[in-house]
């Protein structure tokens, strides 16, 4: 064990303990939470308080005894039993950018391209080459302190294309990990060994998927020898419809073609991508589109209210209950001048008969005269319905006062006759 060196971790542990003590002094709530947690561990049996003999134990402080012996004297672990379970290799793909944190497809591609440029700049800086940067804003200038040899360039087409490739591979590794693992193994296939096959239960089994030179999963169709059409049409890219990146891509096509119908977006997507059950995915994105919700919403027809009692009561004479309103103004010629006149429309609530009267002005007196003429011709109505126009409101007040006066006079006559 002469070649093995164990660093002294005491200063590091002491520094960490001091930091924790200062943090507990500033936050009594944190101190109480830690005490409660330790108490729960003690009660549940996951931990116990150390005794003095345990604290003074040299092995607890300095580690196991065999660590200070040569490696060949270390205790040998038990042999691992053989198993019939299949050892399956899994290919992992770590996301460059969190797609859920970005709202648009174009922004997601540019953010990923910026990350790609950052990785390339690290390699250039290590090789002593100038880094490629975009033009910094005023706020970015405040935070830039170090000076490096740089070349200002906007995001290039190659960087954007590489960013799209990374996003497509991220969707495929997240959605089809078993299929990607099998196809990646076939790329490293050794002669004499069987090829890895995609299981028949896979949703991609009938698509005969293949990997292109960049490791993107594509559909192998029957047009692969037709070189007159683009490569993306011959080998569409397979994407899962439930992935967040695919939803942003569909929304991008939906907005790019003017919030068109489902079949238009479907046709444009099929030029480059193969999304299983794509029509359902497009319809779901269309339902969540804010612009479509606002501009294509259909007003709901309200339920019709029940007819009023005056409209459905049988065996009533015409104009027992009427609705009244004004029509106009209408210009009439009086001598050599023109004057305004209005037409009072009385409508029977039962049989929808109409009676018209002419009024000379919008005053209360003109309204009362029109109602009087109507009552003389059609009989006094039991109920009159109108809007809250000024003339109708004034006529209502005048008629109520007249009724009160008539009632009081009749009451006086009846009482005087009874007492006489």
Description:
There is one protein chain. The chain has 420 residues and is an alpha/beta fold. It folds into three domains: 10-72, no CATH class; 99-134 and 148-188 and 197-295, Endonuclease III, domain 1 (Orthogonal Bundle), CATH 1.10.340; 310-414, 2-Layer Sandwich (Nucleotidyltransferase, domain 5). Helix content is 46%, strand content 12%. It is built from 16 helices and ten strands. It has helices at 10-26, 28-44, 52-55, 58-62, 105-126, 138-143, 157-175, 177-187, 231-234, 244-256, 262-269, 278-288, 290-295, 309-312, 364-378, 390-419; strands spanning 131-133, 150-152, 209-211, 217-219, 237-238, 273-274, 321-334, 337-348, 354-359, 383-385. The strands form four sheets. It has a four-stranded mixed sheet. A two-stranded parallel ribbon has the order 1-2. Strand 7 (321-334) and strand 8 form a beta hairpin. Helix 5 (105-126) packs across helix 7 (157-175). The longest helix has 30 residues, at 390-419. It is elongated, with a radius of gyration of 44 Å. The mean pLDDT is 82.
CATH uppermost class of the largest domain: Mainly Alpha
Total of domains: 3
Percent of residues in helices? 40-55%
Number of DSSP helices? 16
What letter string, H or E per element, gives the SSE order? Answer: HHHHHEHEHHEEHEHHEHHHEEEHEH
Largest sheet: 4 strands, mixed
Widest sheet, order of strands: 9-8-7-10
What form results from the Cα inertia axes? elongated
Number of strands: 10
Low-confidence stretches: none
CATH architecture of the largest domain: Orthogonal Bundle
The pLDDT mean sits at: 82
Radius of gyration based on Cα positions: 44 Å
- Structural class, from helix and strand content? alpha/beta
Question: In CATH terms, what is the fold-level topology of the largest domain?
Answer: Endonuclease III, domain 1
**β content, as a range?**
5-15%
Spatial separation of the terminal alpha carbons:
139 Å
